[in-house]
Amino acid sequence: MVEFHAWMDDEGNLAKVYRALMQRDLPEDFNPKSLDTSTIDTLVMQQIRATSQETMLQQLEELLEEDGRGAIPQKILGLLVSEELRMNPNRLSHMMPDLSWQLQKAKWGGKDYARAIWVKPGYSLYRGKVTGPDGYDHPIDKQPGYSGFDLLKVA
Prior knowledge:
By secondary structure, this protein is of the alpha+beta class. The protein has a domain at 55-154: Arc Repressor Mutant, subunit A. The chain is 41% helix and 14% strand. The protein has helices at residues 2-9, 11-23, 43-51, 55-66, 74-84, 92-98, 151-154; strands spanning 71-73, 102-106, 115-119, 124-126, 129-131, 137-139.
C-alpha cells in the first residue's frame, strides 16, 4: 500500500489512469448507480452475491434455528421478529421463502379454521402435527421453542 500511495501521489500516474478510464467503452446497459449482480456473472459478481446476504436474513435464520422448531405460526413469527429483531413483520413474506420455509394453512388447537403457519424445509404438517427428520413428531402447539407463548391464545 505504501508503494501504491506513492505511485498515486505522482500526478502523471493519475493522468494515465484517468485517460485509460475515459477511453474505455462501456456497454449501453451500464448503470453506475446499480450493481446488478443477477445479470453480470463475473467472478467478482459471484463473490459479491455470496457475501451480500442481508444481515437481518441471517439473524432471522439464527432465531429460527435456536429452538429447533419445525414449523411456526405466522402470528408467533411476527411477534418474535418484532420483539427479538426489532424488524417489521411485513418483511417476512420475502425473507422466509429466501430461507426455503413454506407458508401453509393448517388447523390446530381445536379451532375450526385454518391459520397461516411457516414450515421448515424437510418438515411437514399433518392433522395438527409437525413431522420431520430424526423422528421429529410434535403437535403444532407443543413443539420445542414455544416456552414463552401460549399458542392456543396467541395463534
